[in-house]
Amino acid sequence: MIKAHLIWLAFFLGFGLCPAMSADLASGLMTIDDFKTRGQREDGSGQWELSGARATLLGETVKIETFTFRLFGAESAGEAVITSPHCLYHRTGRTAASQAPLHLVTSRFTLDGVGYDLSADNQTLHVRHQVRMVFKGDVPRVDEPPNHVLPERMSDD
Question: What pLDDT score does 1 carry?
């Protein structure tokens, strides 16, 4: 039993810089406050950064509260910043889900919504309700013709 708790402790220490950490060994709960952790690409450059007010380990699930998740894309993609009051991160499936509001900012748009599902492996974000997206800069108007022409008929030749 103690070995399992040491494994969870190692997980949280690997979670990043955490000024306050508490553990209830009887219940198996571990909590860290004011945490920050980072992920890197193979070349050593930053891939992502997660910081938050609190993370609580609940078995294979981590409850993350008041967090900011920064994704550092390629130069052409730029940075994306996601903030939300809370979510549940499922470590085995590398997915996160929440009924809470979400705010996403990139150099090209901002997106707000309520309730979301995120998959790290598939690199997808599904926002469930009240989605509002605002584009930044020049965006083609809907009534403008596209800059390419599709053939009237496509063949299987």
Answer: 32
